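Module 6 notes. Inverse folding takes a fixed backbone as the condition and produces residue identities as the prediction. Think of it as a translation problem where the source language is geometry and the target language is the twenty amino acids. Below is one complete input and output pair. Work through it position by position during the lab.
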């Protein structure tokens, strides 16, 4: 089974070099794009991630942490709702949503899709639900609105992935962890080969190809293990924040 992919840019931000490439690029600042993806084929209309939500909350946090040097920029034309509208995507027609992890720029807006089954990492979900969470689990990075929505769904609309699971013919999801305990990659078969959407275990294709881990991780060993998995599976690597995905690699924003 083969599918077609569309790439949607959903805002941008900046980040210091050592967050992108562990213990290097000290004097460099990177521009990052936020993406979500539409996958169509074989009678299915699917989204991978659902984009940014309230950037005011995240920008307030970034202002406190970075003194105004870093913020999210989300033009009105690049909000999830306007992207869907301008591309004639009816929210009721989306039948599957894959949530790569529960961060604000990936899981917000999941409640827009009333008929979708939602696929996410079981390990990440259970880790989030633990009473004692590490410091980086806060209600800004992990907004409560989409998480409460997911918790309200009936069992037949939630699909949990443990290590690896085929969701549909030609589409599988597998746990990668590393960046958060819930990071999950998605593998999609297309005419151009197997596309792996990496989640945030890699910000740039160079993380994987150079085997140089991200600096924003909770478990570095899992990052390296994830890169091995992705290299084994992928003909095409698509990360969630690399501007080259649309500026150089897929200028028509299609795969």
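Target side of the pair, the amino acids:
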């Amino acid at each position: 089974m083969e599918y077609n992919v569309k790439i949607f840019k959903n805002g941008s931000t900046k980040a210091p070099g050592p967050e992108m490439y562990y213990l290097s690029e000290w004097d460099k600042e990177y521009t990052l794009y936020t993406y979500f993806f539409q996958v169509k084929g074989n009678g299915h209309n699917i989204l991978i991630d659902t984009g940014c939500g309230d950037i005011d909350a995240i920008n307030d946090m970034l202002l406190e942490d970075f003194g105004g040097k870093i913020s999210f920029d989300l033009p009105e034309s690049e909000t999830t709702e306007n992207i869907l509208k301008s591309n004639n995507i009816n929210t009721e027609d989306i039948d599957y949503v894959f949530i790569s992890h529960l961060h604000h720029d990936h899981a917000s807006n999941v409640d827009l899709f009333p008929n979708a089954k939602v696929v996410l990492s079981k390990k990440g979900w259970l880790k989030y639900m633990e009473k004692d969470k590490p410091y980086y689990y806060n209600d800004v990075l992990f907004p409560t609105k989409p998480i409460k929505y997911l918790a309200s769904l009936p069992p037949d609309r939630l699909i949990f992935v443990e290590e690896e699971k085929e969701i549909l013919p030609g589409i599988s999801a597998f746990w990668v962890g590393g960046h958060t305990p819930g990071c999950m990659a998605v593998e999609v078969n297309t005419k151009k080969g197997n596309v792996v959407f990496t989640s945030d275990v890699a910000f740039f294709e160079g993380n994987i190809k150079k085997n140089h881990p991200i600096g924003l991780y909770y478990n570095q060993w899992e990052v390296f293990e994830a890169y091995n998995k992705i290299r084994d599976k992928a003909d095409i690597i698509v990360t969630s924040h690399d501007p080259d995905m649309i500026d150089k690699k897929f200028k028509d924003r299609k795969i």
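Reference fact for the lab report: The chain has nine helices and eleven strands.
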